[in-house]
Write a structure and sequence with these properties.
- This protein is an alpha/beta fold.
- Helices cover 40% and strands 16% of the residues.
- It has 31 helices and 24 strands.
- The chain has a five-stranded mixed barrel with strand order 1-2-3-5-4.
- A hairpin with a 2-residue loop joins strand 1 and strand 2.
- Helix 27 runs antiparallel to helix 30 and helix 30 crosses helix 31.
- The longest helix is centred in the last third of the chain and has 29 residues.
- The two termini are 67 Å apart.
């Protein structure tokens, strides 16, 4: 793809290094970009100005407004010369806060003379020089943040000789636990691990007892989520933990090789006892060598809560949603499970925070699913009141006391009487002084009439009332879920009830509702994602990213999980100073292994888990996988039935030829391996095998039922006489199996021999005859399942499925099906109905 030129038309800055902008390309198209779109890693979005001339690679995909996405953005001509001049004059340095402006979390900003450069085969990189910023007041900041007599001051003094300590702060984890932390700028001695001017987190975990604390694992996340930390974009793949805890290395080794940020541990003692800078550098290098590349961030399964790990166009989507929130519009985020919905929603929330737009985020699974729609509206209104009033419950305050302090406009008992009216009034009152307020709801399928598992929500009244209140409250809505049915149906008909859908057409993203679905990754987006994450583990996918992306249909979660599997298989081959390049032969081999592995099956199960909630769509997906010869085309008139499956990225549909096919081969293979084909879609041979298998099982179970009944009723002799009498008739219900020589005399043989298929033949039809003829004894338990004697006899005949030797075959002998046994669709339907009726009773026979 050829580069084009353009001019920066708009810049939105969220904080240092954070924000986004648009470039007007010379092709007449506007292109989105952010810090990760910029080629020069020393430049960030806040280094660009409106009017700058740039050069970039344009994307082929466009958003609903016809805008593309730019990558490899570089400054051109006069703009580049201006930046160079500013660098020389120090004009790009950030403001240094003076002592009078110190806050509880003092910012220590970079100065122009705090950098030095280093060059390797990939180019020139700028690094920090060791030390503190020039206006760093050591005594003031140490007294403010560090624990006295802990040795933390000695630790920081020593680290400042080899690293650049750029920020100092503390994190209150709990009432009794405070952690000190700092941000450290990378200096040249770490260049084999980290290239360029970057910062990372150092956590100081000092406790007087010296005991290991499990919360040592957790505090780093809290520190990262602080706005003043996240805005500085510290490295996400690792952090340093310095602790006085006993067994520190043993505890950290438990997490080594995990999917989160690598933890590089140091004890207080080993840093304090170093006698010079070289000794400390040797210690740091050795420990980085042991831990830095060992974690596998490709395998992370949780929702992303850091912009540095938000790949593809997910950041651009989040920016677009925030823009719609500012205009009072609603947005939808739909897609497969683990397609990135929650990650995008998290990104939207971060941007709302930066833009100072108030919001509440509601998790359907934990907060709504198990309460009534009226209580749900009350709880949401209460959350809105808490948010708009900047209140929070204190530790010594009961829920009732806190609720009274909120001074709510309506109480829960009011909502029981007129919930919709109360909610609309309350929200408008609480938000009256705000230009915008956002309500975000995740996993809406759990509270939607046709997909909710809870009876509380599984009805039209709850759905229409709940969503009607949300529609009328005046807030922007962000609806997150598996599919967009909520936006597509005008009139609801469900379980005999009918109602207008208050959300119909309300989720406005564009004229094409498919744009509300998270798109699959392009090859280039996947390359950037897996190479960025792979670099944290010293592994490179540049030769195989196309094959991997197409194998998994551009689904980022699936791609990452496979690449994680690759890493685990090749990590022993890596060398510390050289990335391991994954080859195509390796990928081909491991794709085969992964597809049939437990991890591969788990991946497919996770992806399909919530699709199964939509039973009709999932049934069609199974048909396409299990009977491709019958469902290789879909008529245009039936395209509606596969609409969501296409939007998920599970299948491809060609409107010209009407052909339909899977996009992810492994998903198809998984369905074929784990699901039963619908008998209506089976060939005649498949139907025979299917029927014989079920009939054999039914026969064994009913034989066991007859055997157990007479055994436990102590009527064995009576049953023996019945069998012997029938054997003397022209139509015996039991015959000696001559093929195996038969048993001893029926008068003296073991009782169980009558039920042994190799000794006596008890035909399937004979089982029916025995039970029907002795219904007063054997039929009582069957009648308890609402099956009459007549129905039982008919169901058993229908299970024969039209076999013309039905009265003369042993169902346990699966080798003797007659060639002329043809099973029509009507016969198959009758068989399925009969088996469905008998199955509850059959399943109870143990």
């Amino acid at each position: 793809m050829l580069k084009i030129t353009g001019v920066v038309k708009h810049i939105t800055i969220h904080g240092p290094k954070a924000g986004f902008g648009f470039i007007g390309g010379d092709d007449g198209v506007d292109y989105y970009f952010n810090s990760r779109s910029i080629r020069d890693k020393d430049l960030y979005i806040d280094d660009f100005r409106e009017g700058d001339e740039v050069e970039f690679l344009p994307s082929k995909q466009k958003d609903e407004k016809g805008r593309g996405q730019a990558r490899d953005v570089v400054l051109r001509g006069d703009s580049l010369a201006d930046r160079a001049s500013n660098d020389e004059n120090g004009d790009d340095s950030l403001t240094v806060e003076t002592e009078n402006n110190y806050t509880d979390e003092m910012e220590i900003e970079n100065q122009p003379d705090d950098f030095e450069q280093s060059q390797d085969e990939d180019g020139v990189f700028r690094y920090y020089r060791p030390g503190f910023p020039r206006y760093f007041d050591r005594d003031l900041l140490y007294d403010k943040f560090l624990k006295s007599n802990s040795g933390e001051d000695i630790i920081l003094d020593k680290l400042s000789k080899v690293l650049y300590i750029s920020k100092l702060g503390k994190q209150q984890y709990s009432i009794s636990s405070t952690y000190e932390f700092c941000l450290a700028g990378v200096t040249k001695f770490l260049k084999q691990y980290i290239r360029g001017q970057r910062e990372f987190i150092i956590v100081l975990a000092y406790f007087a007892t010296g005991d290991w604390q499990e919360k040592n694992y957790l505090v780093e996340r809290q520190i990262r989520l602080r706005k003043e930390v996240s805005d500085r974009d510290p490295l996400v793949n690792f952090y340093v933990l310095i602790s006085n805890a006993v067994n520190l290395r043993t505890e950290i080794d438990r997490k080594k090789g995990g999917t989160g940020a690598a933890i590089i541990p140091f004890s207080f003692e080993e840093i304090i006892k170093t006698t010079n800078e070289n000794e400390l550098i040797d210690l740091l290098n050795r420990r980085f060598g042991e831990y830095y590349y060992e974690n596998n961030m490709l395998g992370e399964t949780g929702a992303i809560d850091d912009d540095a790990l938000l790949f593809g166009d997910r950041g651009m989507i989040a920016d677009g949603i925030v823009s719609r929130c500012e205009r009072g519009e609603n947005s939808g985020i739909f897609g497969l499970r683990r397609s990135g919905k929650s990650s995008v929603l998290n990104a939207v929330c971060r941007r709302l925070d930066r833009a100072d737009i108030r919001y509440i985020k509601v998790e359907s699974r934990s907060q709504l699913e198990h309460i009534s729609w009226k209580t749900a509206l009350f709880e949401m209104a209460k959350k809105i009141r808490i948010t708009t009033a900047n209140l929070e419950q204190s530790d010594d305050e009961t829920s009732r006391e806190f609720e009274q302090r909120l001074n709510l406009n309506h109480l829960e008992e009011d909502y029981e009487k007129k919930a919709t009216v109360c909610f609309v009034e309350d929200v408008k009152l609480y938000c009256r002084n705000l230009s915008a307020f956002v309500i975000a709801i995740d996993e809406v399928e759990l509270i939607t009439y046709n997909t909710a598992s809870s009876s509380t929500w599984n009805n039209v009244e709850a759905y229409t009332a709940f969503w009607g209140a949300l529609r009328d409250c005046g807030c922007s809505l962000i609806v997150c879920g598996v599919n967009s049915t909520i936006n597509e149906v005008n009139t609801i008909n469900f379980k005999g009830a009918q109602g207008d859908n208050p959300m119909y057409g309300r989720i406005i993203l564009s004229g094409d509702s498919s744009k509300t679905y998270l798109p699959a990754f392009t090859d280039e987006q996947t390359k950037y994602m897996i190479n960025s994450l792979g670099a944290y583990s010293n592994i490179d996918f540049s030769d195989v990213y196309v094959e991997i992306n197409r194998e998994f249909g551009g689904q980022p979660y699936a791609v990452r999980q496979f690449c994680s599997y690759v890493f685990e298989n090749v990590k022993h081959l890596r060398k510390i100073n050289k990335k391991y390049i994954v080859g195509k032969a390796t990928v081909i081999r491991l794709l085969e292994e992964f597809s049939s592995s437990a991890k591969g099956s788990e991946l497919c199960s996770v992806i399909l888990q919530h699709v199964q909630i939509f039973s009709d769509e999932y049934a069609l997906l199974k048909k396409i996988a299990l009977a491709p010869e019958k469902y290789k085309t879909i008529e245009n008139s039936d395209v509606r039935s596969i609409d969501h499956l296409c939007k998920y990225g599970l299948i491809e549909y060609d409107y010209g030829t009407q052909y339909v096919a899977f996009r992810i081969r492994m998903i198809k293979d998984y369905i074929v391996r784990t699901q039963q084909k619908d008998p209506i879609d089976m060939s005649n041979d498949e139907r025979r095998e299917y029927i014989q298998g079920i009939v054999a099982d039914v026969e064994k179970k009913l034989k066991k039922y007859i055997r157990n009944y007479y055994f436990f009723a102590q009527q064995i002799d009576g049953f023996r006489r019945y069998i012997i009498d029938s054997m003397r008739s022209n139509n015996p219900v039991v015959k000696v199996n001559i093929q195996y020589g038969g048993p001893s005399d029926p008068h003296t043989c073991e009782y169980d021999d009558f039920f042994d298929h190799k000794k006596y033949i008890m035909y399937f039809s004979s089982v029916r005859t025995i039970i029907v003829n002795r219904w007063n004894l054997l039929g009582t338990n069957i009648q308890n399942e609402n099956i009459s004697k007549t129905d039982f006899s008919r169901y058993m005949k229908d299970l024969n499925a039209g076999r013309n030797d039905a009265d003369h075959y042993d169902a346990e002998d699966l080798t003797n099906a007659p060639d002329e046994w043809e099973i029509s669709d009507d016969t198959m339907k009758a068989f399925n109905y009969a088996y469905g009726k008998l199955k509850p009773f059959i399943d109870k026979i143990k």
